[in-house]
Amino acid sequence: MIDAAKPLPAILYVDDEPTALKYFQRALGAQANVLTAESVEEGKRMLDQHADTIAVLVSDQRMPGAYGNELLFYAWDRYPHIVRILTTAFSEIAHTVEAVNQGQIHRYIQKPWDISALRMEMKQAVELARLRREHAQLLREKLLIRQKQAVANRIGTLYALCAGVAGEAGAQGAAVPIEAYLAAALCAGLTPPEPDWLMMDYSDLISSEAFRSAAFAAAVRTQLDGLLARGGGAADVFDRLAEVFADGFDRAADGGTIVHTSRLTEFLETPTASTVSQQHAFWLAALLWLGTHGQTLQMAGGPDGVHVKLVGADAAPTPAQLAGWIEQF
């Protein structure tokens, strides 16, 4: 029984025979919104226009200009959620087997159709499409959760890194610049890291993250040692940034603008297999160096980049404050 409150699922049927199109519409019109096309090219256009609503694609095999399995491959490549079915009155076994082996089609239906069997096939195909959509939605939700977890874990690692290095660098206890770092990442519009967990075993992922974090910490330590050896006052940080970021930093009277904002988010947003650049290591080292002078940078996002200016450093965040920062990502 059809639920009148729910919209009918959409089925796209492609066939160069007008009689077959009418026959299919008459047979399925009560249980689906039947869209039709008379060629592979028209079928592609219909897919592109209605892919969000189409649940099932049914295509005849032998049509002028192109075979139906070309259309099925097109749908498989671009719209994998759509259930693909091949139908023909001809014995195109080779093309059919190829389409099945490549995963391009869900079913093969021989013409002429048995109406009852056709309706049942379409009902099952629509249900499969619904399950695919639900699975894809659950996967997206899981991905978002894991992305948030990845960012939270990296922020925790950053805090530990900053606290440890800052304690070593400042004789009387340096400020921990984690808030400045996170403020810059927010202003830069951080994008969650790529879903490595889909392609890696969890233990391998954690191991890779640990080695990546250790390498980043070593690079930051090296950059900070260089800044400490060079000396100078806190206001010199803008000249240092201009040297390292080159054309990615615009100097101003009261500070400057970091133009290439990806340099501010690299550790938090790049995949675990990606090595963090020396420029990004310098960015965190510069914030740590400022902490030894009791200074930090205030961030403000703008259309031309992230504006920075020198301000007095605050105390290290409490656990509750750090948790609040994590919630913002």
TrEMBL record:
Keywords: Phosphoprotein. The modification 4-aspartylphosphate is found at D60. InterPro entries: Bact_response_regulator, CheY-like_superfamily, Sig_transdc_resp-reg_receiver. SUPFAM superfamilies: CheY-like (SSF52172). Residues 10-126 form the Response regulatory domain. GO terms for biological process: phosphorelay signal transduction system. The keyword Glycosyltransferase does not apply. It holds the Pfam family Response_reg. Transmembrane segments: none annotated. This is Response regulator. It comes from Pseudoduganella flava. The lineage of its organism: Bacteria, Pseudomonadati, Pseudomonadota, Betaproteobacteria, Burkholderiales.
